[in-house]
Each structure stands twice: as structure tokens, then as C-alpha cells.
Amino acid sequence: MYVTLKDINKNYGDFQASKDVNFGIEKGRLVALLGPSGSGKTTILRMIAGLETPTSGDIYINDVRVNDIAPSERGIGFVFQNYALFRYMTVYDNIAFGLELKKVPKPQIKERVNELIELTGLKGMEKRFPNQLSGGQRQRVAFARALAPRPSLLLLDEPFAAIDAKVRLELRTWLREMIYKVGITSIFVTHDQDEAVEVADEIIVTNKGRIEQIGTPREIYKDPQTPFVSEFIGQSTLITDYGKLKGFSYAKGKYQSAVIRPEFVEAFKSDNSRFSDVIDCSENGVITDILFRGNGLELKIDINGLEVTTHRSLERRPVEIGEKMNVIIYRLYALDEEKAYLLENEELVKKDVNNEHLEAYLYSDDGYFVI
Asked: Within this chain, do residues 198 and 309 fall inside the same structural domain, yes or no?
């Protein structure tokens, strides 16, 4: 492992910001520290950087224990959330700053800065000042400045937080491509799960100072291991008494709460013949709210006091608040105090029907939605 944290704890007085943190990151990986505000992710990043000191535990970078090594000697590039650019320095001078501190010869500084300006798409902006740049351009300058001294590890603290939504989407792809081009091990902090899933090779989910789960974006999304991860990842609805739903019985020894995601739910009209062979597996529901999401609708549906959410394509026939629907829930995550358990709808399993089969019901022979 290129970066390793062993038994890390961090206390601020009586408050414990990090609790028994252990993980390893392979060289060349792009890793997201993902969690809500106050979950301890930024504290972990700052301890790796040397800006905070662990109360106990050890941090290794390239097999060297760095607890007592100064931040400037750890071979780390850091991109701050607010960019931390020098207002009275040009783009060129901001990028060159770290190299000048290291007393690199001017010809080498010029060569390196020009290389990074080309790499980050800042050509022609060398003489501009930060207030003459857009948020996305300032972020690129901060990225180039962090890379200038050729660090072995890049740390980014919520790198897209100060950028508007459209530019943020563009920069996600840009950042991922740049990091792979440079080939540098990188860790970034975010509270945005879409950002983590889209950009990272691996995600470390934090909560209340602890590591909840580590895995690829697909593993984290498809196989949440704890109640927190099952609720935090994806668009999840927490319900109680899931054993009242058709096709589900309470898991022995488990609690009665469960998480249901919109993609686990299908809603249709009872007169739709395409669902005739599974209609006995469905619940009677009533639409309580309809939200337009641009590329589709989000339906809130009440099933005997339990509210679930599902998505509906704009290509399907219009529906209204108060309209009665048949609802099939084909899976959910049952929760106890420590674990999340994936449960499949028992009635659908008997019929050998899964979500892929349900999706097939939605299309006519010519490929258009018909319901």
C-alpha cells in the first residue's frame, strides 16, 4: 500500500473526530473520502497532509512513517477548497510559487510552469490575476500549483465545492483525466455521492469519525454493508414494518426497518395487461406527490401508510396526484443496528421475475413506452 493509516484516533478536547481509522491505498489510485459534514473526512485528509497530528496511531506514505515529518517534507500536493491562490500574483507566478520556495533554477521553473499551463488548458492566461478568472479556471490554477513540485501524493479538499453546478460536472471529468495523465496517487474529500461515484476508483465512506465501508463505487452502491451506507448512498427511503409488504417477511433476529430505493419500485395501472402475471405480487398505492426532474418524474406513493418513491419516464402515459396505482417492490435492504441485508421479493423469486424482467414489460414491440 502506498498510503496506510493504522489505528488512527484524533481528539479535540473531549470530542473524538477520528475513531480507530484503518485503511490502505494502492499507488496510482484515485480515492474519495465520502461522508456528510462532520463525519471526519477532512480531519483524515489533514492528518495525512501533516496539518493535523493524530492523537494516536501511525500514518505511512510509501512505507515511511510520517507522523513526525513536516508537511513540506512529505512529498504532498494540496488543493484547498477555496483555492488559496495569491490574489496579487499572476497565474504564472501562482504556479511557480512552490518551485521558487525550493530555489529551483529559473529555466527549470519556466519549463515546468509552461508544461503545466499546457496540461491544464490555461494557455494564454499566464498574465491574468485570480480575480480575472472563472471558478473553474481558478481551480485549474490551484491544481497546477499543487503539481508543480512533482509531489508523490495529491490531496484535494472538496475541490468542486466553490464551483457552480454546470462547471462542476465538466471539472469532474477533467480532473479524473488529468490525474490519470499525471499518474499520481490522489485522495479527495467530498460530501457529494454523485461526485465520488463518477470520479473515484475507490470510495471510503466516513461517519461520526469512523470508516463505515471501503470499496469501488459499484460495490458501495450495490452492496452497502451498514445501515448508514444503505441510507446515505443512493436516493433512499427509510420505512418501518417492511414485513407488511407483499413478498417480504421480517428477517429473523433483525429489526423491522428497511431502506427502499426508487429503482427497487415499479408502479403501473391495474388494467395494464403487460403486468397481468405479476399483479398478484403488487400493492395498492396512491400517488401523493409528483416532482418533475427534467429527464423524468419522481413519484411519491402511499401504500397503506408506507411512503415509497419511484421514477417514471416522461415517455409513459401521464399520471396525477391522487391516482391509484399498483406497486411492486422487488427488493429492499433490511437493517439492524450494525448491518444491512439485501432481501428479494419472495413472491417474485417464486415466479422467477426480477427487475430486468419488469423493465422488459415497459416496452412495446417497436421499442416505445406504452404505459
From this structure: no
Residues 66-109 pLDDT 10s: 999 999 899 999 988 877 889 999 999 999 999 998 899 999 99
Q: How far is Cα 137 from Cα 1, in angstroms, rounded to an integer?
A: 33
Helices marked H in the chain: 41-49, 91-101, 106-119, 135-147, 165-182, 193-199, 217-222, 227-232, 346-350, 355-360
Claim to verify: residue 198 and residue 124 sit in the same structural domain: yes
- For every residue of 130-169, DSSP letters joined together read GGGS-HHHHHHHHHHHHHTT--SEEEEESTTTTS-HHHHH
Same domain, 157 and 306: no
Q: Which domain holds residue 27?
A: 3-225
User: Can you list the pairs that 285-289 forms with residues at least 24 positions away whose Cβ atoms lie under 8 Å?
Assistant: 285/324, 285/325, 285/326, 285/327, 286/322, 286/323, 286/324, 286/325, 287/319, 287/320, 287/321, 287/322, 287/323, 287/325, 288/321, 289/321
Shared domain for 161 and 97, answered yes or no, is yes
Specify the 3-state DSSP secondary structure of 349: helix
Look at residue 295 in the predicted model and tell me its pLDDT.
85
In a shared domain, residues 284 and 191 = no
In a domain, 366, yes or no: no
Count up the domains in the chain and report the number.
2
pTM above 0.70, yes or no: yes
